[in-house]
Write a structure and sequence with these properties.
- It contains 5 helices and 6 strands; from the N terminus they run βαβαβαααβββ.
- It has 122 residues and is of the alpha/beta class.
- 43% of the residues are buried.
């Protein structure tokens, strides 16, 4: 499984998410997207996921806490207990033993991030 994890602010738009996703997913056959469950219902997320037609995994914040990420945002660390929501969501959704393919990518408007992780086949 190859998962694109998303992190974004409340001001993010579907275009913000698309920009970060396009940067992170280039060259990868992404099979699902993931983010923290408290983002459920955000209009930008709803619109974006509909446009890419991939399954969305909404993860409890506890699943993100403690994930080892390549980057560190003080805000993500304080709110979710991990350095990057995008990186942690990708790792958590991709399963045990997953690894990031690269650090998170940031949309040009700086309102969204995306990282891609690949799971270990079972």
């Amino acid at each position: 499984m190859i998962v694109a994890g998303l992190g974004f602010s409340s001001q993010a738009t579907a275009l913000s998410l698309r920009a970060a996703y396009d940067l992170a997913s280039a060259g990868h056959d992404v099979t699902a997207v993931a983010t923290v469950a408290d983002k459920d219902g955000h209009p930008a997320l709803t619109e974006f996921v509909k446009s890419i037609d991939l399954p969305l995994h909404l993860l409890p914040a506890d699943d993100l806490a403690g994930q080892r990420t390549l980057t560190c945002s003080p805000r993500s660390r304080a709110t979710y207990g991990t350095g990057s929501v995008a990186e942690a969501a990708a790792l958590a959704a991709a399963g045990s033993g997953a690894r990031l393919l690269a650090p998170r990518h940031i949309s040009t408007d700086r309102l969204a991030t995306c990282a891609v992780a690949i799971g270990v086949p079972s």
